[in-house]
Amino acid sequence: MSVLIGLFLKLSAFSLIAFGGVNALLPVLFNLAVNQEHWIDVQTFSDYFAIAQAAPGPNFMTVTLIGWHVYGVIGALIATFAIAWPSSILIYFLQRFIMRMQDPIRKSTIQHAAAALAIGLVLSSAWQIALQINHDYAAYALTLLTITITVLTRWHPLYLIALGAALGMFGLV
Amino acid sequence: MSGFGGVLPWARRTLVEHDKILTSEEFSAILGICQIVPGPNVVNLAVCIGSRFGGARGAVAAVLGLTLGPICIVMLLALLYEHYKYLELVKGVLRGISAVGVGLIASTGFKMLRDELKYPAMLFVVVVTIAAASYFHLGLGWVVLIASPLAILLGWKKAQKS
Q: What pLDDT, in 10s, does the model give residues A81-99?
């Protein structure tokens, strides 16, 4: 029971600091789940991350899977609820406030500032997580290939995920 | 449910292009707000759009509708994973997917970076954030505290320019 309460409280707090979305803060989640709370080990985190990327739906499902690992179905539901409720309540009240903001300069100042912060966080997140889950040069090469293709073309991400799965299946990564 | 590789593009297509519930500008404005506020972006988006049409109840319905199906699927996958994770084949597949997954996250960042090139001074904020988080390994609170005054100052200048 106490592990469930811990899961709920820690992830609720995480929700409120998750600027730029959950993917921007994967390193914080990693630190929390692997190093601090010992909910899961590095390999499981990396595998859950892969499953969440490959599955349909919002990609914060890594959190759901961590909950699942800790306490089965109940753990999964509590983890997902914990990650969603604080920020949902915050935005429910904030959106009207921001939408009604009349001064267009102030409005776009906030948006530009938030966008720049989010970019920095997302890029650092990708870098730090790559250091944890990519074990060899082939994996880094695949990550770089993914970045190149997504930035230069309009390929659907699913093709790239399938490509990664196939390369991994044949033991190339 | 069909939100492979993230739900956002799909949400835009359905709400703006197909059902015409929102205009493109409204969608961008709402998305902008959702990205300022912490928390899962997609859930935030569901709260904003749901509450617009049905108040608090609409918000809850939108969030549940968006997450329940995927939660069930992901738990099924977790069950399969528990049974077959010892297989070299499964390990390889997951290694491949996670390498691609990191790349996908990075490219979201690079795509957003492209929009910032219109006002290159803003890149300074990005560099400061990355340095604080990845090189100096500061906690998130410090990163936001250090980078946000600069971000707000430059954001204000950028807003006046455009």
A: 999 999 999 999 988 887 7
